[in-house]
Amino acid sequence: MPKMKAVAKTKPAPGAEIIDIDIPTPGPDEVLVKVLATSICGTDLHIFEWNEWAQNRIKRMPQVMGHELCGEIVELGNNAENLKKGDIISAETHIACGHCFLCHTGNAHICINGRIFGVDVNGVFAEYAVVPASNAWVLDKRIPKDHASVMEPLGNAVHTVLAGEISGNNVLITGCGPIGLMSIAVSRICGATRIFATEINDFRINLAKKVGADSVLNPKKDRVMNSILKDTDGLGVDVVLEMSGNPTAIREAFSVLRPGGRYSILGIPNKPMEIDLGKDIVFKYVTVQGINGRLMFSTWHKTTRFLSSGRLDLEPIISHRFPLIEFEKGMELMSSGNCGKILLYP
User: Fold this and answer.
1) Using one digit for the tens of pLDDT, what is the confidence trace for 75-96?
2) Which of 128, 217, 289, 315 could form a disulfide with 222 if both were Cys (CB 3.0 to 4.6 A apart)?
């Protein structure tokens, strides 16, 4: 059986290893993909560092990590339709069952039985990966392969930004990690009037300015609430897009969100936290939304159009590139925060 190299979690402890494993064989409803580029997500860092979430979620080892990719289809299962060898694809990483209540009602992105590449099934930090044919997203040829490899996290940003009205609105984005940076760029091309962002890492503060933020505030140095209220004539922003997962940032953003505003949350705190429901939500008539993944597949259509139009440039957000075998360098950078999006090449 031909072998390939892959990055895998092999033991219940911090770290991961390059291992040699069999090249997988696609099932009837799957395709085999030669991975051209893949990118590191915060989820991968959690698994690498073996935090509490990873310890509770990862059930098998070795577990090939990674879920963001661009690749070429090299083999098709017998039932794979509307695909062909040579197609360049990205992939939706939530594997939906297709038969539960949520799948049947247009909410496959929160499928009750959903699985995720690199978490529940083998992932894409490898030379080859198996992908369900229904998850393969054939790419517009105008989209560069590097940009295609980050379409999945970009879809998170697109979903969050477009979960409500954005054009003509003042927006606060809390946290300028890769998806926060993408949210700034998407908000800009979608017509946000003024974009505020908060971030404590100098590297990411500079990236936020490059991709379109009008004002980037450091909570450790700046009076965030005073600055935003001053620049919005005391009203506050119309929209908050929460990307940090930081409990303090989450709470304080309510104080600069205008009454009747929208608060869309993608960031996930490490532990349960408290907010004042009466003061911050009920009496302010605020709409709070939890965002999970990408709408399947309307978000993918919008993301494709943004990229193929040439109006959305991801290049400033892609800060580092490494061979797959140097994945640990990428993990170290992710842990430091001194990076944007990091790409790996098998």
Assistant:
1) 999 999 999 999 999 999 999 9
2) 217
State the 10-residue block means of pLDDT for the chain, 346 residues long: 96 98 98 99 97 94 98 97 96 97 97 97 98 97 96 98 98 98 98 98 98 98 96 98 97 98 96 95 98 97 97 96 98 97 98
- Are residue 127 and residue 110 in the same domain, yes or no? yes
CB proximity list for 18: less than 8 A, separation 6 or greater: 5, 6, 7, 8, 324, 325, 327
Which one of the listed residues 46, 67, 147, 159 is annotated catalytic? Answer: 46
- Exposed (0-12), middle (13-18) or buried (19+): which is 168, by Cβ within 10 Å? exposed
What pLDDT does 1 receive?
Answer: 81
Structural domain of 162: 157-290
**Phi first, then psi: what are they for 20, rounded to 5°?**
-100, 120
Domain assignment of residue 341, yes or no: yes
Q: Do 7 and 129 sit in the same domain of this protein?
A: yes
Residue 307 lies in a domain: no
104 is catalytic: no
Closest CA to 179 of 334, 297, 38, 41: 41
**80 within some domain:** yes
Which residue among 43, 160, 198, 232 is the active-site one? Answer: 43
232 is catalytic: no
Q: Order of strands, edge to edge, in the sheet holding 170-174?
A: 215-217, 194-198, 170-174, 237-242, 257-265, 287-290
Is residue 46 in a domain?
Answer: yes
Q: How many CA atoms lie within 13 A of 287 on its CB side?
A: 11
**Count: domains in the chain:** 2
Same domain for 121 and 34, yes or no, is yes
Bridge partners (DSSP) of residue 128 are 34
